[in-house]
Amino acid sequence: MSDILIESVLQEQRQFPPPPAFSAQARIASLEQYQQLCQEFQADPQGFWAGLAQRELHWFRPWEQVMDWQPPQVRWFVGGQTNLAYNCLDRHLTTSRRTKPAIIWQGEPGDVRTITYEQLHHDVCQMANALKALGVQRGDRVGIYLPLIPEAAMAMLACARIGAAHTVVFGGFSAEALKERLRAAQVKVVVTADGGWRKGAVVPLKPQVDQALADGQVPSVQRVLVVQRVGGCAMTPERDGWWHELQPQMSPDCPAEALDSEELLFILYTSGTTGKPKGIVHTTAGYNLYTHITTQWVFDLQEDDVYWCTADVGWITGHSYVVYGPLSNGATTVMYEGAPHGGNPGCFWDVIQTHKVSIFYTAPTAIRALIKMGVEHPQARDLSSLRLLGTVGEPINPSAWMWYHRVIGGERCPIVDTWWQTETGGMMIAPLPGATPTKPGAATLPLPGIQAQVVDRQGEPVPVNQGGYLVVTHPWPGMMRTVYQDEERYRRTYWEPIPPRDGQHFYFAGDGARRDEDGYFWVMGRVDDVINVAGHRLGTMEIESALVSHPAVAEAAVVGRPDELKGETVVAFVTLERHYQPGDALKQALLAHVVQEIGAIARPSEMTFTDALPKTRSGKIMRRLLRALAAGESPTGDISTLEDRGVLESLRPQPQ
Ligand code: ATP
Ligand code: MG
C-alpha cells in the first residue's frame, strides 16, 4: 500500500463531448486534429515550435537556433529579435483591427472606456516615452502597482516596448509586501495610482508606495509615476509625477526596440500558497509565442469574440491571458475593476450582458463564491452571448463544474479547465473545446508540444488511476528561465526533486495527479498537502470534492493532523451554503456523506464550521496554515500573501 504515492478514491464518470455546433466552427475541430498536432511535435519538436514562431510572430531578425537546452537552462529562438509590444499592437494597425476595441474596460462604479488598437498603441508609445523621460533604460526594472485599469496594461506594454522588465505587484498587497518585491527586483521607477475601487470602496494605493519607499528603504527607486483614478493623493516633489500631466507632453512616436529573444521580460512572484513566493523570470520571444498560441488553441479564439478573463494583472493569469495572449492575437479583452460582493452579487453577470462577452475565464474560488450568492443573479441576466467558459487556479470540484456548466453555460458552452502555473508561463494541460470531451474535475490532456507525465520519485510513470507527481519532460517556449537571482532555488525547487535518468530531466510542478484510462490528467492537490492515513496517501482535492458535493457545503479544505496510531487523520474545515446552520446533526450527515462518496478511509476525524477559509490574495486556499492550526501550532512562514488575517484569528483555538 505504502508504495502508492497518492491513492484515488473519487468516482466521477460524467463526460461531455464538445457540442457539435461548437466543433463545426472551431479552429481545432476533432481529437484527430489534436492528435495530428501532437504527432507533428513528436516527429520534430524544434520544427514544430519554429513553424509556429515563424507563422505567428513578427521577427526583426530571424533566430539561429530554435532551442538551446542545457538542463535546466533553456534558451529559445537564440539570436532572433522580436518585440512583444510590437506583436500586441503595431502589427494589427495595418489591418482592419486598427479600429477594433483592444480593451473594453469597466470600472467598479460603472464607468466604461473602450480603447481601440490604434488608441492603445498611441497611449503605450506615450507611456514608453514617459518611462524613458523618467530615466528608464533597456534592462532596467519597473514596478507596477496599480488597480485593474487600462494603464496597468499600458505600463506593461510600455516596458516590453523599450526592453525594460516589469514586476507587477497586485494592488491588494500591503506596503511591506510591496517593499520586499521592489527591493528584490531593484526597481528604478514605480508606476502606481492614487487608488482604485474594490468592493464598493476606494482602496488607496499611493500611500502604500510612500510607506514602502519611506526613509530610503528601496534605494534603487528614483521616480514614481502616478495615475489619477480616485481623486488625488499626496505627492513627493522631485520624485513623483502625475501621468495625466506628463502624457500630453509625450510624443506618441516610440518605435519598438528590436529585443533579443531571451531579453528579460518580467519578474513575477508566485501566489505564495505553499511558502515564500518565488520571483519567476520570463523572457521575450518564447513567452510571447507560448501565450499567443495557447490563447488561440484553448479559447478557440475567433475574430469577433469578446473575451473576458477576470484575473488581476498582478497574477500570471492577468499577464498571460488578460494582456499578452489576447492582444498578441488581436482580440478584444475585457477588464473589470471590481469583484462580486454582498452589495453587488450580480456584477459579473452584468458585465457579460452589457459587453456581450463570448468567452469567460475565471477561478474556482470565484465560482464557489458566486454559487453561494445564489442562482437568482445569473438567472436574471441575459448570458446568451457566452460560447465558452474556462477555469484556472485550483482544481475545480466536480459539483462546482456542473453548476458552471448548467447555470452559466446553459449546458451549451464547453468548459476548459486549464492547469498551469506562474512558472509555466501559459496553459499546459487543458481541453481544446472543439475537440476534447470534458469530464468535470479533469484538466484533460496536455496541449500539443507539452510532454506531461505522472511519475514516482524515480521518474517512472505510475499505473493508470494511481496518483503520483505531475512532471513535464521536454522544455517548452513559455517555461520559466530561473528564479530571479537565485539559480540555486530554481534547480532545487523544480529540477532536483526527481533526479534525471537516462538523459531525461523532469520539471517537477509540485502538484499531485493521476491519469485515467483515457490518459486524462486529474490534479489531486499539492504534493505538500497529501494526507497519510494508516498508509493510505490521500490528495486533498478528492475529499474536498466529496464534501462540496453535499448541498449544504459551499467550500471545504482538508488537512492532515499527526496521529500516533494512524500517522495522520483528516481534519476538515467547512463553510456552508446560505440557509444552512452548523450543528452536530449536519456534521454527522457530512461525515456519512464522505464515507458514502469515497469511503471510510477519508472520513474526517474532526470538522470545523467556519465563515471563511484562509486564502491567498489570488483566492487559493492556504492549507499549510490550516495544517498548523489543526496540529495546535501557530502558523509560521510567509503570510504576506494571506488575504484576510481575521480569518486565521477566528479559526485559532479559543482558550477554554
Ligand atoms: P506558490 O507556488 O507560491 O505556493 P501557487 O502555486 O498558488 O503559489 P500559482 O503559480 O499562481 O502559485 O499557481 C499554480 C498552482 O495552482 C498549480 O501548481 C496548481 O496547484 C494550481 N492550479 C492552477 N490551475 C489549476 C487547475 N486547473 N487545476 C488544478 N490546479 C490548478
Ligand atoms: Mg506554485
From TrEMBL:
Post-translational modification: Acetylated. Deacetylation by the SIR2-homolog deacetylase activates the enzyme.
Keyword terms of this UniProt record: Acetylation, ATP-binding, Ligase, Magnesium, Metal-binding, Nucleotide-binding
A GO term, aspect molecular function: metal ion binding
UniProt-annotated stretches for the region Disordered: 635-656
Gene Ontology biological process: acetyl-CoA biosynthetic process from acetate
Alphabetical list of NCBIfam families matching this protein: Ac_CoA_lig_AcsA (TIGR02188), PRK00174.1 (NF001208)
Listed name of the protein: Acetyl-coenzyme A synthetase
Top-level taxonomy: Bacteria, Bacillati, Cyanobacteriota, Cyanophyceae, Gloeomargaritales
Gene: acs
